[in-house]
């Protein structure tokens, strides 16, 4: 899948994470019920959109982005994509935010930052022992049904984010 529209062209993605076309690393995450979840559990007919975010607890930019993602979640699902979001937050924090905001997609807890590390998107500004150790660079990956990365986009700062209206337009016109 090739993206050439403004969802990604307006801002420069940093060069982190797996390469487009590579097999997606496994997820080491748990859901609201503290059950292990994998890529196959989440993937729909056309694939899976995974949003990596810093925190649903203390990051106001993340909270707003998660709410915006929710506004498009059903649209992405109607296009044939599974949707999920991953953070280092505990399941209690994620459950509280999800219920308060009535999210229609799962928020998944990355245990010991294993998924963030496997994807190569661990924010290097924080070291082991720091309160914020384990946060990713914010961004998305789109994994196709075969389990390969079709697209990725990550930001160094916390203010820049993928615009879901543009992503939706890209995906709705992709062949």
Automatic annotation (TrEMBL):
Domain Thioredoxin: 18-173
UniProt entry keywords in alphabetical sequence: Redox-active center
Pfam family, one: AhpC-TSA
Xref: SUPFAM superfamilies: Thioredoxin-like
MF annotations from Gene Ontology: antioxidant activity; oxidoreductase activity
Keyword Cytoplasm belongs to the record: no
Keyword Mitochondrion belongs to the record: no
InterPro entries: AhpC/TSA, Thioredoxin-like_sf, Thioredoxin_domain, Tpx_Peroxidase_subfamily
Matching Gene3D superfamilies: Glutaredoxin (3.40.30.10)
PANTHER family (UniProt xref): THIOL PEROXIDASE
Protein's UniProt name: Redoxin domain-containing protein
Natural source organism: Colwellia hornerae
